[in-house]
Design brief:
five-stranded mixed sheet, phosphorelay sensor kinase activity, Heat Shock Protein 90, alpha+beta, rod-shaped, transmembrane helix
Amino acid sequence: MSTVSADVRVPEPPEHSGRHWLLPSAVIHEFEPDASRPGRRPRRTARDWIVDFTCFLLAVLVGIVGADAVTDNPHVPHALAVVDQWTGALACAAVWLRRRWPVGLAVATIPVGMFSDTAGGACMIALFTLAVHRPFRYVAWVGGVTIALIPLYFWLRPDPELTYFVAVVIFVLLTAVLVGWGLLVRAKRQLMLSLRDRSRRAETEARLRAEQAQQLAREAIAREMHDVLAHRLTLLSVHAGALEFRPDAPHAEVARAAGVIRESAHEALQDLREIIGVLRAGEADDAGRPQPTLAALDHLAAESREAGAKVTLDNRVTDPAAVPASVGRTAYRIAQEGLTNARKHAPGAEVTVSVSGAPGEGLTISVRNPRPDGEIPHVPGSGQGLIGLTERATLAGGRLEHGPQGDGGFGVRAWLPWG
């Protein structure tokens, strides 16, 4: 299982290689957390200034053409032509406000466009801006009213060069193209924002999965800590208790017990040092020594016998090396915890460790001890060892049962998948 460093930061918005000026402000402020604060308008980018100036220039050019057409139109009085031109000039200047008030500008250009040919370019820019920056309902109302007034406009002010029907069709199609173009630009921007949100969600989910994997790894390390240290410390407790209650024991037994205490303390410190190293490195495979497998059961039984326990190992697996490492490690920890519990709660009782199985059938391991002679000692315990073993077996795809036996003893039985 791989984990990540504990220093996990919240994912930042996607970078754009210093080319923010290529994006519109309506999009770029979504990538800048500070720009999304309430009451703060997105600042214009260089692209915005270029687009705004182009729109203003286009409105002016169309306005000049419209002003010439008004001057040459015999159906328009001179005074109305002057008002038309001044109104168109103001409408062109108002194009610079299209980003701040797109709806208001589009609504205001509807009556203006009814009597001013010079404002035609500004009206088109306002309608296009509305389609880009506002939802479709606003575009539908303003665009629908604009299209509905086109026949009335050419009825009041006929075009000197085009017939009534041709002029109406051309301007209706032009309005529809402007609206469609604006909606296409808006859809493209929304797609960019959607991809950005999807990227953020993917990074957040990846971070959460990494944190979950890290938490599972730490829980596994905690179980290893309990299984390993409980076994070592139990040896210390047993031999220290023997020295306490038998101070007159022969010198050879005292020396042997002291040697076991020293070795167990050294092994416990070594295991604790490895666990701390794993926690610091963040990787479960960084331990200094290889993890025990099923082949290490003989050494575990011999170690318990040296501590004074009566252990009978019945290993019917013909080739322990063929057992998968994860399954063998789980079986080893089950046997280790069973021997530790038997040593604490049933001192002096003979413990039987049985292992059997084959590929395709699974691996079965049991640790049993009879009721000890005399009074059962009261040893404090939290019960977390058996809970951890149950979780370990479940994670390995197996099952574990434990509890008192009919003869008053205690047994632990587990089945683990193999192949």
